[in-house]
Design brief:
257 residues; alpha+beta; Arc Repressor Mutant, subunit A; Beta-Lactamase; 2 domains; two-stranded antiparallel sheet; 8 helices; elongated
Length: 257
């Protein structure tokens, strides 16, 4: 049986539409009705119903008691495998950062309202920063978290911050959404985000976004503030930006696949 193909491409139409549904639901981050999906994808409601039934049957979408739809648990396993692959592929680049700076290098992605570490190479120093791979942190008070947020529209940032309530672990973090958004705008202009003891006292972190990643991604260098000083900016930030460009090129060339 011939399957429908999108005109002018080699894409299987039904597969492409199913992926569109999953991506739109992931972007909205909440429950959606069939009518909302049909409006966003510009497809007839019966077509959306057929695709939804298939995805529900496979566990990739679930139906709520309100008869709205959300992403299903089957996607967790796929996401975990993809995250592990990205982390493993990024490790050589993080090792280069550690070799050049002597400090701990991290990669994190945005997962809902949290930053999740997917790779780390620790500093060789006995006094160093350690964050467990898979660890989740609030984005407003971490370097990688801010570098993730600055890739998003302000409206999306406000939604994330309203859900996290912006808790404080030290006296240093910004806990007002509008003040943080203004700070993120300054970070966009200068090309990097900074954590000044906001997650942990005595720690400084420089972080930059990784452009072209399939989901908001950032890399960072973290260390004791006595070693990672404000004067480190001129050395650390260009290194981070160079490695981010290399990672971006690999994403775009599908080297991570």
């Amino acid at each position: 049986m011939n399957m429908p193909i999108t005109q002018g491409t080699s894409e299987v139409q039904s597969v492409g539409r199913a992926v569109d549904i999953l991506e739109i639901m992931a972007t909205t981050g909440g429950l959606m009705s069939v009518t909302e999906l049909a409006r966003k994808i510009e497809l007839p409601i019966p077509t959306i119903h057929r695709l939804i039934r298939t995805l529900v049957g496979r566990g990739y979408i679930r139906q709520s008691p309100s008869r709205h739809y959300a992403l299903g648990p089957r996607l967790i396993r796929i996401g975990e495998s993809a995250t592990q692959l990205i982390g493993a592929s990024a490790r050589p680049h993080l090792e280069e950062l550690v070799a050049c700076t002597g400090e701990t290098a991290n990669m994190a992605i945005l997962d809902g309202t949290m930053a999740v570490y997917v790779a780390q190479v620790p500093s060789p120093h006995s006094m160093r920063i350690f964050t467990e791979v898979g660890g989740r942190v609030f984005p407003h008070c971490t370097g990688v978290g801010k570098a993730l947020l600055l890739q998003l529209p302000d409206a999306t940032i406000r939604t994330i911050l309203s859900r996290t309530t912006m808790p404080s672990y030290t006296e240093n973090p910004v806990t007002d959404p509008e003040t943080l958004i203004a700070d993120l705008q300054r970070s966009r202009l200068r090309g990097y985000a900074l954590d000044e003891g906001e997650q942990e006292l005595g720690v400084r972190c420089f972080s930059v976004p990784v452009p072209g990643a399939p989901t908001p991604t950032a890399i960072s260098i973290s260390g004791p503030a006595a070693r990672v000083t404000p004067e480190s900016t001129d050395k650390v930030v260009p290194l981070l930006q160079r490695v981010a460009s290399m990672l971006s090129a690999e994403f775009e060339s599908e080297a991570f696949l």
